[in-house]
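Below is a filled-in request sheet from our internal design queue. Each sheet records the structural input a requester submitted and the sequence that came back. We keep these sheets so that new team members can see what a complete request looks like end to end.

REQUESTER: design group, bay 2
PRIORITY: normal
MODE: inverse folding
CHAIN LENGTH: 82
BACKBONE (tokenized):
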């Protein structure tokens, strides 16, 4: 099965499915990141995410286990804010 790819954008906005494809996770996980306040989004009909927000998300949360976005855990360490 061929993997769907989403080209990196320098402008414009990503939809939740496009963001999920970029992050190689499911759309429910992206909604969890948004609801937990980890990934900023805006509602323009449906939720949209700026490419720069995706980049900042990746830089900021590198080295964390985000399985439960409401309780990020530093890999090999302690929960954020603990």
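RETURNED SEQUENCE:
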């Amino acid at each position: 099965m061929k993997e769907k790819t989403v080209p990196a954008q320098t402008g414009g906005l990503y939809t939740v499915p496009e963001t999920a494809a970029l992050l190689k996770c499911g759309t429910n996980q992206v909604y969890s990141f948004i609801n937990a306040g980890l990934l900023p989004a805006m509602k323009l009909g449906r939720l949209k995410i700026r490419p720069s927000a995706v980049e900042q998300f990746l830089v900021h949360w590198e080295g964390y286990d985000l399985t439960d976005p409401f309780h990020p855990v530093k890999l090999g360490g302690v929960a954020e804010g603990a």
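SHEET NOTES:
- Residues 51-60 form the longest helix (10 residues).
- The two ends are 42 Å apart (CA to CA).
FILED BY: M.R.
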